[in-house]
Amino acid sequence: MTAIFSPFWTQLEALVAEFGLPIDALVILGNQSIREYCSQIGFPELETSNTRAAKCIKSVSGPMFLLWDHTDPVDAMVPICGRGFPREDIEKLDDPAVFAMHLLLHEIAHYLRLDLHQDLPTGEIERDCDAWAFEQLKRFRSA
Hints:
This is Metallopeptidase family protein. The protein is mainly alpha-helical. The protein has helices at about 10-20, 35-40, 75-80, 85-90, 95-110, 120-140; strands spanning about 25-30, 55-60, 60-70. The protein has one domain (about 5-140). It is about 50% helix and about 10% strand. Strands 1-3-2 form a three-stranded mixed sheet. It starts with 8 loop residues before the first helix and ends with a helix.
């Protein structure tokens, strides 16, 4: 399977740094899934899906943004497509670099917008993270 995130390592590091977050918070996993990684670090309860593309782990030591390099982009797009975004936004994700940036920005939103998400249902949180990621993409892609 083709690597999804590692070809864009430099751009993804720059996104993390842009928000004042530590670059070492970005972890791109190779053949190991996010579920396997969470089990390895002693927190199997953090992830139950074998196919999760990206995840933000929030801890007292700071965030960790996990990206699984062997994600199937089609599977990762299914939830985004079901959240009612304009076709033009969704079509931008056909560009592999934009797709990678969007997924990382979505996870960064989970961390930065945690207080706003306190009392929201999961579906609204996910939609908000996608909306925020699309807005940030406009800023970064126009630069």
